[in-house]
């Protein structure tokens, strides 16, 4: 992974343009998710994360107060460079810092092996979300102090 790539907690108000650009590119343009499904009221209360290459935002994710992780997205040119791992490790670390012992997400089926590598387990059958096959996954933090 390039030493230029790093992840930081984002500010929904200040970083909204970057967060929206990444999610619009990945979900709305590439995956044809309807905009009204992509944007919801939960963005305002979520903790957002940005992956950056230098100072250019290339990936995004969010963590909801109940431990749900979502909107994990990396721009196409940066896929395969462990950006998703860096994003997810930052999200998991923040969830644990907040005392969220269980993290949950709905994964696109093709991405489930990626999340399994990070300690998530599939806990549902396949279902369609925005026309894309998904499964629900859960990760339990170890009870050991970090």
From TrEMBL:
One GO molecular-function entry: acyltransferase activity, transferring groups other than amino-acyl groups
Q: Name one Pfam family in it.
A: Acetyltransf_10
> Which InterPro entries does the record match to this protein?
Acyl_CoA_acyltransferase, Bact_Acetyltransf, GNAT_dom
Q: Give all residue intervals belonging to the N-acetyltransferase domain.
A: 5-142
- Which key words are in the record? Acyltransferase, Transferase
Q: Which domain of life is it from?
A: Bacteria
Among its keywords, does the record have Mitochondrion? Answer: no
Q: What is this protein called?
A: GNAT family N-acetyltransferase
């Amino acid at each position: 992974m390039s030493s230029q790539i790093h992840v930081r907690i984002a500010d929904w108000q200040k970083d909204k343009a970057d967060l929206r650009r990444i999610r619009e590119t990945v979900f709305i343009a590439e995956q044809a998710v309807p905009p009204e499904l992509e944007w919801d009221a939960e963005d305002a209360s979520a903790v957002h994360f940005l992956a950056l290459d230098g100072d250019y935002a290339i990936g995004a994710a969010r963590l909801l107060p109940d431990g749900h992780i979502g909107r994990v997205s990396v721009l196409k040119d940066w896929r395969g460079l462990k950006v998703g791992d860096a994003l997810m490790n930052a999200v998991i670390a923040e969830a644990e810092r907040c005392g969220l012992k269980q993290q949950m997400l709905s994964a696109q089926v093709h991405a489930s092996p990626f999340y399994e590598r990070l300690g998530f387990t599939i806990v549902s059958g396949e279902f369609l979300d925005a026309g894309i096959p998904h499964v629900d996954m859960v990760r339990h933090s170890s009870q050991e102090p970090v």
